[in-house]
Design brief:
This protein is mainly α and 66 residues long. It has helices spanning 2-9, 12-17, 21-37, 44-47, 53-59. It starts with a helix and ends in a 7-residue tail after the last helix.
């Protein structure tokens, strides 16, 4: 079900057709994080989740959080 929601949420043609290049790039960055981790690692602490090693390394990179 979550994958279906993501497919609906991330409609590439919708962003391209609305001529919102910044928004499109922003959505691509978010989608890459979800594709990689299945969640947003920068939300782990506030949601009481434990980050795995890969997430911790990712969060140390510049620009990893929005």
């Amino acid at each position: 079900m979550y994958q279906t929601i993501l497919q609906f949420w991330f409609d590439e043609e919708l962003y391209r057709s609305n001529e919102l290049p910044y928004q499109y790039e922003f959505e691509l960055k978010h989608k890459a994080i979800i594709d990689r981790f299945g969640r947003y690692p920068h939300r782990n602490e506030i949601l009481g989740r434990i980050s795995n090693d890969e997430e911790v390394d990712f969060l140390k990179q510049p620009g990893s959080s929005f």
